[in-house]
């Protein structure tokens, strides 16, 4: 399925927004766009919802035919088990995470032990745990960790854009991770010259206008054949005003959904 994530509404659920979206609003907006998947990714307020509100959120998604996924940071067993509990209430079958969190930077050996502990419960629950590619851990190390653990519920959330910051070629990241991908974050990106021509800025771009070779990703990973969900995200810089930024964010959502729908046949 093609979906939207909380990063697709990043500025609209930020404190800067005049009419700030909450979890329920993002589900409603997703439904209005005829999208059947939404991922709450690095969205801290989801952890603060009580049982009644979580049940209401699950009901709202179900009523609108929307499948939910979750995303967080860190691999501490206790934290991942907390997200597994959230997944059970929300009916989510995928939890995306990253090795590092704001409070923890485990070694690969420590991450291995923590993941093995958490995966016992994930396996019992039938929920996939997808570790995202990003610049702080090389894709080679991430694949090695997944291979070493060898659990059927552990895989990779592929986002080729993230690893560019550590000088990994996006095609290499796609090739290396393809057999283990369980979730995809789709965002385009481009380099632009900074003022005075003193360096470059790496930032987002509407799909099909930047450096992401999406056709190659489709050909190599084959998400439709394998039942791998694709979640739209953005690296949208703040414009001159928050109102202009929100307008652009909505325009990018419309454009990126149309782009993915034109490329994917289910």
Automatic annotation (TrEMBL):
Lineage top rank: taxon: Bacteria
Pfam families assigned to the protein according to its UniProt record, in alphabetical order: AP_endonuc_2 (PF01261)
Domain named Xylose isomerase-like TIM barrel: residues: 28-242
Keyword GTP-binding attributed: no
Keywords for the protein's UniProt record, in alphabetical order: Carbohydrate metabolism, Isomerase
Coiled-coil boundaries: none
GO function term, MF aspect, one: isomerase activity
Protein name: Sugar phosphate isomerase/epimerase
Organism: Agreia pratensis
